[in-house]
Automatic annotation (TrEMBL):
The gene is speE. It catalyses: S-adenosyl 3-(methylsulfanyl)propylamine + putrescine = S-methyl-5'-thioadenosine + spermidine + H(+). It comes from Pelomonas baiyunensis. InterPro entries: PABS, PABS_CS, SAM-dependent_MTases_sf, Spermi_synthase. Gene3D superfamilies: Vaccinia Virus protein VP39. This is Polyamine aminopropyltransferase. One of its GO terms (molecular function) is spermidine synthase activity. Its EC number is 2.5.1.16.
Length: 519
């Protein structure tokens, strides 16, 4: 069949819209890839493993799609239109489908979820891989007089890479914080359907069964619009099932997904699906984290908190009347705003984030320490566990060397250090890494029912002496209870470990292995 050529008056418009479709196609394809990786990390554990495997499968599938395009010989526009509708529907609904299935599966069925995840990634990636070769062949067939092969490849790839760049920037900064993963997927699915509508209009003269194509476009658009309208209800339903309690606050920032639940037992905070505290027993964790270092110093005046945007550690610090200034360095401004301005959450931290003694700095702790010269009597390090390389850098020898530079001669630093029972090698890796900077360490642990046995490491330039006095009305830490926290039974005793460095990040892999064995 000889395809019809566009009239001269339509040629420029058709060419422009086809090249614009390449831009949209690239943007949509990258959104589906990023959404799948983000969901895998969010639902299966925040780990570089999830992103790496999703991206690897997706790229392989794109290569498979490109290879399959060689077998499309007739009705290129019709096939391209059908591919766009399939990509729009399957890719656009993929985040919603994964959320829903994960919520419906019983606990412990992660394998079934992974099968669905990678099946969808493989399908969407294959369809995306078909798109660009088909567009290039359509352009070559209809504008052969205007394009040599070199110019054709250059034009198409330029628009392809520009679309990918735009989405790579917009996804974490604009799309996820303002739309969420489900609505972002659906919105870009509608863009793919829009490309199909463009193709239907531009090449209507040569398409067979135009009415069937028009109906398919309308059906796909209607399905995605319905999903867009119901996205909030689906997300709420899925997260209610996932967390098992009423969600009172949920928001995605450029850095993390923040969810706060409230039930009969109390209030819980989750970051990227991982529990950070439960109001019924968080006092055990935060007293154990803060009070031994503060009491050992005796009369700390200047205190630094790295992480801990919920204000609980600051609450414990302010129980010491000697404190004159507390500096809180928290990457995510949404966290400090939430726990300062929400009455129920502010009550949990005793309104510590509104204290006149407190200075809040929203910045990356690593970079902030590199730029500052201040010295502190006590440094409290309360980061999430090292489940990925971005967090793992905050547990490296390079980071602890920076901490040492900001510690006064008689000062103490304390690090929350995961579970010495469940993640024994991870715990002692942190101890070994701190010791590599020349600091003296005092490991200890506490039982927090929501977490189990949890570990901490004190670091200083002088030996740790058991304090004899603590602030009044503490509920967990006392001069009598502290010695028991320093004792490690055989199943938590020290094991040989490697230093965690920026160049190897062995802690992230060790942490993934140990915690992965219990999920």
């Amino acid at each position: 069949m000889t395809s019809s050529q566009p009239t001269p008056s339509r040629a420029s418009l058709a060419e422009l819209l086809l090249l614009a479709s390449v831009f949209v196609i690239a943007a949509c394809g990258l959104v589906y890839e990023l959404a799948a990786g983000a969901l895998a990390s969010y639902l299966l554990g925040d780990s570089v493993l999830q992103f790496s495997t999703v991206i690897g499968v997706y790229l392989f599938a794109m290569g498979l799609g490109s290879w399959l395009s060689r077998f499309v010989e007739r009705q290129l526009v019709a096939v391209f239109l059908q591919v766009e509708l399939l990509v729009g529907v399957v890719g656009g609904l993929m985040p919603a489908a994964l959320f829903a299935v994960h919520s419906l599966l019983p606990p412990g069925e992660a394998a079934a979820f992974r099968v669905l995840l990678y099946a969808l990634v493989l399908l969407v990636g294959t369809l995306v891989g078909l798109e660009i070769p088909l567009v290039m062949r359509i352009l070559k067939r209809h504008f052969s007089a205007r394009y040599g092969l070199k110019d054709l490849v250059s034009q198409v790839l330029t628009f392809d890479y520009l679309g990918a760049l735009l989405v790579a920037l917009a996804f974490p900064l604009v799309l996820v914080p303002h739309l969420g993963l489900v609505r972002t997927g659906v919105a870009f699915g509608l863009l793919n359907v829009g490309v199909a509508v463009w193709a239907l209009w531009l090449f209507r003269a040569e398409l067979r069964a135009r009415h069937a194509h028009t109906a398919a476009c309308a059906l796909s658009a209607g399905l995605l619009l319905a999903a867009l309208l119901g996205a909030d209800h689906l997300t709420t339903w899925a997260e209610d099932r996932f967390y098992g309690e009423h969600i009172v606050y949920k928001q995605s920032s450029p850095y993390q997904r923040i969810v706060v639940t409230d039930g009969r037992a109390g209030t819980r905070l989750f970051l990227n699906g991982n529990l950070q505290f439960h109001s019924k027993d968080e006092y055990r964790y935060h007293e154990a984290l803060v009070q031994p270092a503060m009491a050992a110093h005796g009369a700390p005046k200047r205190v630094l908190v790295l992480g801990g945007g919920d204000g609980m550690a600051v609450r414990e610090i302010l129980k010491h009347p000697s404190v004159e200034q507390v500096t809180l360095v928290e990457l995510d401004p949404l966290m400090t705003t939430l726990f300062r301005d929400t009455p129920k959450l502010a009550a949990l931290n005793a309104h510590s984030l509104s204290s006149p003694k407190l200075r809040i700095v929203n910045a990356d702790a690593f970079g902030w320490l590199e730029q500052q010269r201040e010295v502190f009597d006590v440094i409290v390090i309360d980061f999430p566990d090292p489940s990925n390389f971005a967090l793992g850098k905050l547990y490296t020898a390079s980071f602890y060397e920076l901490v040492d530079q900001h510690l006064s001669a008689g000062g103490y630093a304390v690090v929350q250090t995961t579970s010495p029972l469940i993640a024994r090698r991870s715990f002692w890796t942190v101890v070994t890494t701190v010791e590599a900077t020349g600091l003296t360490t005092t490991p200890y642990h506490a039982h927090v029912p929501s977490f189990g046995e949890w570990g901490f490491v004190l670091a200083s330039r002088r030996p740790f002496r058991l304090p004899t006095q603590f602030p009044p009305r503490l509920r967990f830490v006392s001069p009598n209870s502290l010695p028991a926290l320093l004792d490690f039974p055989p199943d938590m005793a020290r094991v040989p470990t490697e230093v965690n460095r920026l160049s190897n990040q062995v802690l992230v892999q060790t942490f993934e292995e140990e915690w992965g064995a219990v999920h």
